[in-house]
Design goal:
Elements (H helix, E strand, L loop, with lengths): L2 H6 L2 E6 L4 H7 L5 E5 L6 H13 L3 E5 L2 H6 L4 E4 L9 H7 L2 E6 L2 H9 L4 E4 L15 H9 L5 E5 L17 E4 L16
Parallel strand pairs: 1-2, 1-8, 2-3, 3-4, 4-5, 5-6, 6-7, 7-8
Length: 194
């Protein structure tokens, strides 16, 4: 299978605390795009605006750590961060049919997310970011070695941008999350296109 066909089958997750007009324009260029409202201090006015945009454009929306907001605003899912200790999400997940995604950096965190009934996990950091330097990143090979036995959908996160996203072809994963990729002026519609 050609590399571009592999990428077209993956899911994209855009982490944001807001959506301005330029982001809206680029978001609509993506296939299989999901939005994660990634603000630990929720601004409910902003959340409503993002949710309205997502519903209008048939985009799934997730929120960080706030399962009550998932129910109240009828969101599509919940992202559980490293700091969250939410447990016993089995009944929550099945009752309202939402998807739960966890963020992990290692095997120990993965097992905690498994107990929290996460449907999938973001394993990070994949590439260099402002927060993680060269000696802290996973890279494609280590990413594959760590996650190969995990019985969950694995997504990659961290430092993915327009200049390096093709390196994700080397990774056995279901998709990836990003912040900076959405800002690229080089993105063509529909993304990915080569």
């Amino acid at each position: 299978m050609r590399a571009n066909n592999l990428l077209k089958q993956k899911e994209f997750y855009f982490f944001t605390t807001e959506i301005n007009n330029s982001f809206k324009e680029n978001i609509l260029k993506f296939r299989n795009i999901n939005i994660i409202y990634n603000n630990p201090n929720i601004n409910y006015h902003t959340l409503v605006k993002i949710n309205d945009f997502c519903k209008k454009n048939f985009i799934k929306i997730y929120i960080l750590n706030d399962y009550k907001a998932v129910i109240k605003y009828k969101l599509d899912g919940l992202l559980i961060s490293k700091k969250s200790r939410i447990l016993c999400l089995n009944s929550f997940n099945k009752k309202i049919g939402v998807r739960i995604i966890g963020k992990v950096h290692n095997q120990k965190e993965f097992f905690l997310r498994k107990e929290q009934n996460c449907d999938s996990v973001f394993l990070s950091p994949l590439f260099i970011t402002a927060k993680y330097s060269t000696n802290q990143i996973l890279g494609p090979i280590k990413f594959n070695l760590i996650s190969k036995e995990w019985e969950k959908k694995v997504l990659c996160l961290g430092g993915i941008n327009y200049s390096n996203y093709k390196r994700t072809f080397l990774i056995k994963n279901e998709g990836f999350g990003f912040v900076s990729l959405i800002k690229s002026l080089k993105i063509k519609k529909p993304f990915p296109s080569f």
